[in-house]
């Protein structure tokens, strides 16, 4: 008998944490941070429902903070087992957890300075030291490797195509007569995303825990690369600059790859391109070290000796001085900087510089959550507040939504189609409540499967 308890990502897209008790072991699948509005974030401060010291393993689907960002707290509260994930996920987590700890510490400092915390002094959720202690527990595997969690239970990672290193986690127990396979989708990728593979197919699944971020929506753009070409050519013709807020891990590398390719194909001229995000630069090195995880097309370009992330006129900005020096380039440049939703980072000073001029263009390429500056810009409000100043939004605002890393509902149904047997039960997680319900209903209607939308804290026996 195995038991699965849902400790996060129920009715929300953050805080992925699933507790699996199997074959005498306590396993946590993903250890994510709750993100977004305060009522959700507050959950990070509640005591973990089960003592972290009682867990044997944490298995990670991928490095995104909503799947990995609670780890340093989990370790601080007593977890000392192994953290198992792919090599790329382990490398990306090293960078991202340190960055997350830095943000936690800065937030606490800020709260103390402004005196708005109820606690005195305000403490960070975790520290850089906690992140360091966490990194020591990583045990990376390659896709396809078997790892024995206990005598009768093994785990294997399959490429999920969501970000570099992202995996479907496949746990199989074989005991006596019976054997069962439990599959966790993590975040499910999509067809035709540059660099990444399509999500793998896994067979003989008995229980499936499936994400449903896009349970209610489909991706609109059919040719995101074509749209990117048009935006670049249009904005450069206007005689201004192009500023692209982009997530440091994933989106920035995709952009560099595409800009290089589009130059080579003669679809865009080679403009000076500035990458201004320290974490994106670190992540770029990790991408270069994990070429074996790329899709076939990208690997073939590498075989031809191409420097795949290097457009002709690329400038990497490491120091603050490098960053500020970009301000002197008044036109004809492309600036890529984080954060993707303009919540912080070096992108702030670039936007403060460029937004007031109508010759410039700002290109938004990802989801802009409510309450973020990214959303204010997307909605083309008159001004946006940056560093206490109301900056007028006169620049052209462009949007491309087609590079999303999440499968929409049609893509998810297509991924489920080749399943060679009917799963005993499918659990819908990682979606707003309506999206999870909608996705559940689509699977019931299309395939007639048994689909459940679990509540927070709910447990299920997996027979
Ligand atoms: Zn993700």
3D architecture notes:
This protein is α/β, with parallel strands linked by helices and 463 residues long. It folds into 2 domains: 2-217 and 405-462, Ribonuclease Z/Hydroxyacylglutathione hydrolase-like (Metallo-beta-lactamase, Chain A, 4-Layer Sandwich); 224-399, Rossmann fold. Helices cover 30% and strands 22% of the residues. It contains 14 helices and 22 strands. Strand 9 (167-175) and strand 10 form a beta hairpin. Helix 4 runs antiparallel to helix 5 and helix 4 runs antiparallel to helix 8 (278-289). It is globular and about 70 Å long. Bound molecules: zinc ion. Zinc ion is lined by residues 62, 64, 162, 187. Residues 62, 64, 162, 187 line the site of zinc ion (ZN).
- Uncertain residue ranges: none
Average pLDDT value?
94
Bound ions, cofactors and other small molecules, one mention each: zinc ion
Tell me the CATH topology of the largest domain.
Answer: Metallo-beta-lactamase, Chain A
Quick one: CATH class of the largest domain? Alpha Beta
The CATH architecture category of the largest domain equals: 4-Layer Sandwich
Provide keyphrases for this structure.
alpha/beta; seven-stranded mixed sheet; globular; Metallo-beta-lactamase, Chain A; single chain; binds zinc ion; 463 residues; Rossmann fold; 22 strands
List the helices and strands and how they pair.
Blueprint: E1 2-6, E2 18-22, E3 25-29, H1 38-41, E4 57-59, H2 65-68, H3 71-76, E5 82-86, H4 87-114, H5 128-135, E6 138-141, E7 147-150, E8 153-159, E9 167-175, E10 178-184, E11 207-211, H6 224-237, E12 242-245, H7 251-264, E13 273-276, H8 278-289, H9 296-303, E14 314-316, H10 320-325, E15 334-337, H11 347-354, E16 361-364, H12 373-378, E17 383-386, E18 389-392, E19 396-399, H13 409-416, E20 425-429, H14 433-447, E21 451-452, E22 459-462
Parallel strand pairs: 3-4, 4-5, 5-6, 10-11, 11-20, 12-15, 12-16, 13-14, 13-15, 16-19, 20-21
Antiparallel strand pairs: 1-2, 1-22, 2-3, 7-8, 8-9, 9-10, 17-18
This protein binds zinc ion.
